[in-house]
């Protein structure tokens, strides 16, 4: 692993580096006319077409039931669209074989509102688990895990169990776990939903730092204040339709 | 991805320690199920050897009139000996028959003393390879011309034959029912234990569903997720099977000899090699049930 910390330290996290819409190579995510119906009468996503380039930092906004979660989960191939085509990190999901799905997911880090940490494992073990189960060696684990925990600002608490950490700290562990494998894409489903505004902002800054390493970051949220503060690309969903796609956007009134 | 057996074993061991109540539950379930199956096999075999012993007592006796032509008797005997359904044919002379009769009647000397001469006929005693063929052999005998010449009562040849005419059929019906019931019982036990084990493993998996969902999210391959559970299931099954085998061995080598010594008239006749066969069946069955049970129980948690 190249000296990531040095790279990160050289980046001034004030947006001086152009992090939006850097066309470098093929897009990270392509959706073409994607429709998903859980029941025939109502579409969770309808005719959604979008492109997200590698290295972008994107908010998906909209209230409950607008299709945010379906959007995120369809990128993980947890939800299979009724029609349309999705390409993620070079994998065409309509053609992917079941055996290849784990390899798709190794290219995608995931952060959730409820952290999904294992309560009987320490911060170190929780992060190490993500590497163990994809067959990484002990050597790789022992070097990368402390590094990523330092990156998220938990160097002093690597042996704490989740119940010994605050909500913000737990979310940092979960970000560390999502990022430890250096995936090119990070998906966050309401990452700040359970956190107070100050802590949320810290997590957002952390995600921004991760974005500056070149990782594409996609955040589904209804945290208006946060979206308005960050001024990044905003994709607004309402009843399964994209109603707005705006660079350096605000939350707005997606109705 | 390198398949890391050490990791799987370590994971299985850790989970065993961590969820030991669940693991003990699984082991006890498998142990009891396999014990029931093993004991039923044991009882079934004992019953079967009793039944077979009884069935083998079915023989055909042909009573021969006193002035029968010896050449005809020997001709019939030779004919029957060449019959593939017949195991052996013994000629029992009048004096041999009397001797046997006297032995049987030892306790009532009056009967023996009142005998005038030797009223007992000579006979041919036929043992069969398979006692179920008795009707066919009887038919062959009745059809043979020698039989009509030598039989004790030429006016009623039927009464010169003794093969437990009615009893044989009833005995065979009875033993068939017992065998079918035994097999059905064992199959039911096997199904019940599969369901039990599947449920136990399901519960163990349910207890760890968060771990599983995270493994899936970070891209662990399905086999990687499955292996520790399958190992765990098989380890539990092997321990359960060993316990069951221990009990069955104790029954065979400690309990049965005592029962046998009090019930001398019955022969259970379970050979040690059969006990080893049962052990093998239980171990193999346990491993298959444990592994398969885990795999089946895993399926719904690995839907992608």
Task: Round the Cα radius of gyration of chain A to an integer and report it.
Answer: 18 Å
Oligomer: heterodimer
Strand content of chain B: 5-15%
Report the C-alpha radius of gyration of chain B, rounded. 31 Å
Structural class of chain A comes to alpha/beta
> Distance between the terminal alpha carbons of chain B, to the nearest Å?
20 Å
Helical residue percent of chain B?
over 70%
Strand order of the largest sheet of chain B: 2-3-1-4
**What is the averaged pLDDT score of chain B?**
79
Spell the H/E element sequence of chain A: HEEEHEEHEHHHEHEHEE
Described by strand count, sense and barrel closure, the largest sheet of chain A is: 6 strands, mixed
Number of helices of chain B: 11
**How many angstroms separate the termini of chain A?**
45 Å
**Strand segment count of chain A:** 10
Element order, helices and strands of chain B? HHEHEHHEHHEHHHH
Work out the largest interface and the residue count of each chain: A-B, 25 and 20 residues
Q: How many runs of DSSP E, i.e. beta strands of chain B? A: 4
Low-confidence stretches of chain A: 10-21
Q: What general form of chain B does the structure show?
A: elongated
Instruction: Report the sheet-strand fraction of chain A.
Output: 15-25%
Shape of chain A: globular
Outline the structure in words.
The complex is a heterodimer of chains A (255) and B (304). Chain A is an alpha/beta fold and 255 residues long. In chain A, 31% of the residues lie in helices and 22% in strands. Chain A is built from 8 helices and 10 strands. In chain A, the strands form 2 sheets. Chain A has a 6-stranded mixed sheet, with helices on both faces. In chain A, strands 2-1-4-5 form a 4-stranded antiparallel sheet, with helices on one face. In chain A, helix 4 (123-132) runs parallel beside helix 6 (167-179) and helix 5 packs across helix 6 (167-179). The longest helix of chain A has 16 residues, at 197-212. The relative contact order of chain A is 0.19. Chain B is α+β, with helices and mostly antiparallel strands and 304 residues long. Helices cover 71% and strands 7% of the residues of chain B. Chain B contains 11 helices and 4 strands; from the N terminus they run H-H-E-H-E-H-H-E-H-H-E-H-H-H-H. Chain B has a 4-stranded antiparallel sheet with strand order 2-3-1-4. The longest helix of chain B has 43 residues, at 165-207. Chain B is elongated, with a radius of gyration of 31 Å. Classes of the chains: A alpha/beta (255), B alpha+beta (304). The A-B interface holds A 76-78, 98-99, 101-108, 110, 116, 118, 120, 129-130, 132-135, 177, 181 and B 1-2, 4, 7, 18, 210-211, 213-222, 224-225, 304.
């Amino acid at each position: 692993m190249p000296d990531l910390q040095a790279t990160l330290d050289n980046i001034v996290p004030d947006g001086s580096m152009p992090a939006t819409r850097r066309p470098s190579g093929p897009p990270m995510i392509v959706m073409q006319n994607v429709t998903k119906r859980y029941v025939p009468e109502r579409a969770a996503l309808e005719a959604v077409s979008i492109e997200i380039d590698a290295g972008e930092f994107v908010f998906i906004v909209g209230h409950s039931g607008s299709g945010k979660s379906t959007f995120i989960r369809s990128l993980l191939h947890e939800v299979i669209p009724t029609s349309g085509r999705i390409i993620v990190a070079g994998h065409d999901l309509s053609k992917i074989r079941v055996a290849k799905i784990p390899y798709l997911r190794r290219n995608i880090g995931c952060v959730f509102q409820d952290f999904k940490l294992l309560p009987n494992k320490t911060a170190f073990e929780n992060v190490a688990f993500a590497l163990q189960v994809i067959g990484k060696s002990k050597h790789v684990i022992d070097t990368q895990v402390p590094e990523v925990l330092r990156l998220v600002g938990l160097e002093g608490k690597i042996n704490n169990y989740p119940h010994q950490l605050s909500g913000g700290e737990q979310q940092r562990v979960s970000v560390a776990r999502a990022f430890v494998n250096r995936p090119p894409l990070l998906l966050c489903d309401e990452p700040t939903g359970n956190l107070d505004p100050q802590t949320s902002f810290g997590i957002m800054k952390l995600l921004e730092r991760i974005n500056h390493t070149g990782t594409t970051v996609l955040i589904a949220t209804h945290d208006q204040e946060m979206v308005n503060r960050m001024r990044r690309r905003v994709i607004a969903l309402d009843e399964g339709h994209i109603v707005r796609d705006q660079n350096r956007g605000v939350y707005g009134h997606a109705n | 991805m390198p398949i890391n057996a050490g990791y799987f074993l370590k994971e299985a061991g850790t989970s065993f320690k961590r969820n030991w109540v669940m693991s003990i539950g699984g082991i006890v379930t498998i142990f009891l199920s396999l014990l029931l199956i093993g004991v039923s096999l044991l009882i079934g075999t004992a019953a079967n050897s009793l039944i077979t012993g009884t069935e083998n007592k079915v023989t055909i006796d042909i009573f021969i009139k006193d002035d029968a032509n010896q050449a005809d008797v020997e001709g019939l005997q030779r004919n029957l000996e060449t019959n593939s359904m017949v195991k052996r044919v013994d000629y029992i002379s009048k004096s041999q028959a009397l001797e046997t009769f006297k032995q049987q009647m030892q306790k009532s000397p009056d009967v023996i003393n009142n005998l005038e001469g030797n009223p007992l006929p000579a006979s041919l005693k036929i043992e069969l390879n398979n006692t179920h063929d008795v009707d066919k052999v009887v038919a062959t005998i009745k059809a043979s011309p020698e039989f009509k010449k030598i039989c004790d009562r030429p006016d009623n040849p039927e009464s010169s034959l003794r093969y437990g005419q009615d009893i044989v059929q009833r005995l065979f019906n009875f033993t068939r029912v017992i065998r079918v019931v035994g097999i059905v019982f064992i199959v039911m036990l096997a199904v019940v234990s599969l369901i039990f084990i599947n449920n136990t493993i399901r519960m163990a998996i349910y207890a760890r569903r968060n771990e599983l969902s995270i493994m899936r999210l970070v891209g662990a391959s399905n086999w990687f997720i499955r292996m520790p559970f399958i190992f765990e299931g098989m380890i539990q099954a092997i321990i359960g099977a060993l316990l069951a085998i221990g009990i069955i061995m104790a029954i065979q080598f400690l309990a049965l000899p005592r029962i046998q010594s009090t019930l001398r008239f019955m022969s259970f006749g379970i050979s040690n090699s059969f006990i080893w066969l049962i052990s093998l069946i239980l171990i193999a069955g346990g491993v298959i049930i444990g592994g398969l049970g885990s795999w089946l129980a895993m399926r719904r948690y690995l839907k992608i």
